[in-house]
């Protein structure tokens, strides 16, 4: 750890630190691998269990009567994206107190690394969904997922950890764009099309 200490930055350590598979590793990806795996599993369960339940409650027949399996997948992915935005914006809040002048090449702390790891787990899940349903999401969303995974893992070199909270705060826009896309997908006209994510969904119905 360099002179820019964890206490001076956020005053917090990762609550999952003691669960590390490699607690003494100087490699941050190994030290926080358990958080990446946990995050991936969490979002897969959210997609498989929680998202269909919430969509049935929120959209009712507009969701349950969907015959196109890809459109139903898109509904569920929208819900997972919203869950991730809420989780991400909640856990990143303490990192916003990290001074921007800290060394972007050497600075790291346990909490910021946890934020990066949880986000990496989500984007790895997102990448697997884009690859699995490439017909639905195409090269644009797949490229976005690849870039996001790269950035999150790069921050565990470490690199630019003092900025990680500022970078991820853009997730605050996800609930509004997601709800717009999902609502648009629920209309009869949108349900006749093969749509690729919330951006194209919104454009289609506007």
From TrEMBL:
InterPro entries recorded: TLC-dom (IPR006634), TLCD (IPR050846)
Report the residue ranges that make up the TLC domain in this protein: 74-175
Subcellular location field: Membrane
UniProt keywords (A-Z) are: Membrane, Transmembrane, Transmembrane helix
GO cellular component entries: endoplasmic reticulum; membrane
Question: Has UniProt tagged this entry with the keyword Transport?
Answer: no
Q: Organism's domain of life?
A: Eukaryota
Membrane-spanning parts: 36-54
Keyword Secreted set for record = no
Pfam families the UniProt entry points to: TRAM_LAG1_CLN8 (PF03798)
Q: How does it sit in the membrane?
A: Multi-pass membrane protein
Report the record's Gene Ontology biological process terms.
lipid homeostasis
Q: What is its main location?
A: membrane
Protein name (Swiss-Prot/TrEMBL): YJR116W-like protein
